[in-house]
Amino acid sequence: MNDEKNQTMEIEDLTIEKYEWGNKILTVRENKIIHKKLQSDPDFASRYFSKFVGPENDNNEESKISSEEEFCEDLVWSYDAVKLLVNEYQNRLHRFNNPKIKNNRLWKEIAEVFKKQNKPYPVRAISRKFFNMKTTYYKITKNKRRIKVGRRPWPWIKAMEEILKKDNSANLTNDKITVAEKSDNNENTTTVESTVEPNKLSSNNPTDPIESTNNSSSEGNAENKDDWEMIDDTSNFSSSLGISSDHDFNSSNSQNLPKDISDYKTKMLDLKTEEVKILKLIHKDVDDDRYSKMEVVSELTTAIKEHNVILKELIDVLKERLLNK
């Protein structure tokens, strides 16, 4: 970088600065947070510039980069920033539930509030953060029986509960999807039968173990982390896409299974339940134009990888038992 060539001018909440990278002069239109990282973190700058400047164009030229909301995942969220986000969303909850109002407009309003409080977070970073908090809330409420005694509770659990119980989002039970439709005078609930078989969503055997005592899944590893924000990237949910029913365990046979195999059966059933919930949330947000299709593909790829890890562990256990017979 050449500091002498850096020129700055304000454009709304963005600034324009020029950088020298390789043999190119790059004009970057970004927010102050991204500019600060570009100037202080060489690794980030290299990843950022290489994303926009292809290797096939090596001749000297001046390029313009405008990416207001790239690299949102690198932003650090303070306690005060998250508290502000929760409060501002709660203040606009009735408008978020209004189908006539575009969500993007409301996120821009919240971003303006952040800007006035000297927190220039991009719009997309703000909406993504709240989506991740919703996902974390559903994970915690689903797995509350697994949370170890003495663990530091997630600080936003009560606030998110207050918000989501008034939110017109889909709420999933074992075999039904219920959608609340609110009006000024009454409150109706429409029930839609799910195509997912109930026995694939929850175990019919109440004595089945809740958590494996042998190999731990990615979800178990996440629970050992002290910082709940570490699991806000929704990377812990798992998907059964592409997996045939041959991998499922029939609950009627669970009594004949060894304990470790039965543990895997419970794990797989839990993964199927979580898959339905998380994918439902993802699809809702995609319909709201909050995230790109590439982000959804990335989430699904992570889900499939995690499911494959569990399947591999199960296959290894089965192989070991067969060889030892």
TrEMBL record:
Which residue intervals are annotated with compositional bias (Low complexity) in the record? 186-199
Give the Myb/SANT-like DNA-binding domain ranges.
Answer: 77-163
Q: Name one Pfam family in it.
A: Myb_DNA-bind_4
Q: Where is this region: Disordered?
A: 177-226
Q: Where is the composition biased (Polar residues)?
A: 200-221
The organism's place on the tree of life at top rank: Eukaryota
From which residue to which does any coiled coil extend? Answer: none
Q: What is this protein called?
A: Myb/SANT-like DNA-binding domain-containing protein
